[in-house]
User: What shape does this take?
Amino acid sequence: MQIQVVKSKIHRVTVTGADLNYIGSITIDEDLMDAANIIEGEKVHIVNINNGERIETYVIKGLRKSGEITLNGPAARRVHKGDIIIIISYGLMDFEEAKSFKPSIVFPNESDNSLT
Assistant: This one.
């Protein structure tokens, strides 16, 4: 049996922008992507702590060390600059493998989205 489990999580990161006129996705600082083991184009769920919204989209690389977290396209209507969000990706794996799997979880600094 295959099940979906949390693969990666960026916990409590601050939204730095919302660009309604972009075609879609979420732009994430590439350092945060690397730390959380998330790749460009990967499907992610966004959970907005401020308003409870849950959004599904895909990832675009942002500039390293920029702290950028920008929701693009229609998702920009569901967040505001300064909102705190959680970014989660899931992996599909064998049930037995999932029992011992450890996800990559990152806890950035909420004030500037840095890793230190």
Q: What stands out?
A: The CA atoms of residues 35 and 57 lie 19 Å apart. Residues 30-36 form the longest helix (7 residues).
